[in-house]
Amino acid sequence: MLNTLSGRFLILTVIFVMLAEIFIFVPSVARFREDYLLARLERAQIASLAVEATDMIAPELEAELLTNAGVFNVVLRRDDMRQLALSSPIPAEIAATYDMRDPSGPALIRAALGTLWDQSPRIIRVIGTPVQGGGQLIEVTMDQMPLRSAMIEYGLNVLLLSAIISVITAFLLFLAVQTFLVRPIKGVISHMQNYAEAPEDARRIIAPSAGVRELRDAENALQMMQTQLTSALRQKDRLAQLGGAVAKVSHDLRNILTSAQLFTDRIEGSDDPLVIRMAPKLVGSITRAVHLCESTLAFGRADEPSPRLARVELAQIVDEVVESERLAAGDYPLSFAEDIPATMNLRADSEQIYRVLSNLVRNARQAVTATGNPGEICICGEEDDRLWRITVSDTGPGLPPKAKEHLFQPFQGGVRKGGAGLGLVISGDLVRGHGGRLTLLQSDANGTTFEITLPKADFALSPETV
Hints:
Blueprint (H helix, E strand, L loop, with lengths): L4 H49 L5 H11 L3 E6 L2 E6 L7 E6 L5 H13 L5 E6 L8 E7 H54 L15 H55 L5 H28 L9 E4 H16 L4 E6 L5 E4 L1 H22 L3 E9 L3 E8 L6 H5 L17 H11 L3 E8 L2 E9 L11
Parallel strand pairs: 3-4, 7-9
Antiparallel strand pairs: 1-2, 1-5, 4-5, 6-8, 9-10, 10-12, 11-12
Helix pairs in contact: 1-2, 1-3, 1-4, 5-6, 7-8, 8-10
């Protein structure tokens, strides 16, 4: 009970209501004391009227009037004359005097607390203003103990009433919390447990229905999260199925390309000048295709091969990439610029660097040709004591916002219609395998620039967020 939300609300409500009643208790008791003393003054004034009505009054009647008024004697002041209207023996000396004609709030509270604290019998004098113009002043002496007993009784009644109000209020708040908070929260928990049993089932996604705005916001956030998770799980399942299919296709395609590689070995022996010039490129392309199939099979086994590091000439790799893309561009007015130092030798896997540059240049070519306008693709290289840097830039239209947001996410960062969005993902993985990083430096109306950064020492560069 104490560990539940509604139970804690119940206890806190009782405590807070009782605290509020305690703050109200002292002023209310002070007000009760004032009313009590004023009532005694009014009774004493009424008793004095009986004396004025007759010249002589029997001692028995005078004692009865004083008893009914709850005082020992009554003094009236009229026309600046002080008159003893009723009197009886006072059992003790007067201990205190209280003037009720114009008391302040703090004075009433201090007097009330003093009355409750003092348990000894005391005789007090009370001064007030007579009602209905009955004189200038009325003064009585009385025992304080009946006043204290009445104040204690009144205080206990107030505390009892406060406790009853607290319990009723807490119970009503308990029902309200159960209805408007606990029950909807339990409903959300039930939805979460139901969804956790089969997160791929879109029918189990929560439908926001809470009337409380905060709970409604929580349900909306949960719905969004569940929708994204369900979509991601479905995509993961499709990727797993696609990976299996690609692995099968790559296995068969590798066998076909191996046979083609055997035929190209014989073509290399031809005396035709054109064949002599084109055969090495054909052999290189088929070799890369075989390596790609092998890498795809390794990726399907979640075992991406590590790069085979060796000293490679970057200019030679760039020449092969550019030559291949020139053939793909055909007669389109697209120029290629290379600014690679002849002495720039990388410590890298030549096949993987070729794949990275081929993906970047192919994307740039497709972006430029999609505009229908002439363009240029530039590949630059530079180095310092720590790093090799390679930039690939184009004069295309730039990447759309959605592509920037999901640039290195598979099946989401594609720009070309029909593209799978895997080129940059694969390129980023290959560059990270070298300890480097692939970064988007610029993408706007003036074009797009990617940078490949590779470390010269044996350490990995920290990734950067685009």
